[in-house]
# Entry
Amino acid sequence: MTYKAIIFDLDGTLVNSIEDIADAMNTVLKSYNYPPTHSYENYKNLVGSGIKNLVVNALPEYHRSELEINTCFEAMMKVYSLHCTNKTKPYKNIIELLNRLKSKQLKLGILSNKADALTKKVVSTLFIDYFEIVLGLKIEADKKPNPNVALEICMLLDALPKETIFVGDTNIDMQTANNANMLAVGVAWGDLETKKN
# Structure
């Protein structure tokens, strides 16, 4: 099979963003006097399903009313949007990998469960001119593992699903690839990198 396109997940696959995410959420928890804050290691287990779910899981169980979740989610988005590129950086050898893929005329895209505006901000800061399509979460119902947006990216890259590789670091990414009938490729460096912090 000849592959024409590769869709990448962002956080934990292309970039190590755990510290910026953790710092932002811990800032919100402290501002509302919600104990406890969490370590970078703990946040590794909380990410992957979008910031709204991260907020729910980071809050103490007795502070998860709809009002508290929505209030903290809005606060988290404000803090994180200002600081989402403070410590976030590409994993080792990612730039070299992207250069090699581009040299082979492969079309590259990104699909993240991070909010669309934040996804685009991180990518435009760290990866200039590598990706033809960059999409984050716009509608909650389209969140991975729903394959709809992956298939949309595939179409925009002018590739069939069977001609597309989906690269990610979580089971959700692998489910997305399977649901979209794309080749699933899992990476482990995100987890390995986080465990060193």
Observations:
- Confidence is low (pLDDT under 50) at residues 192-197.
- Strands lie at 5-8, 15-16, 89-90, 107-115, 133-137, 164-168, 183-186.
- The chain has nine helices and seven strands.
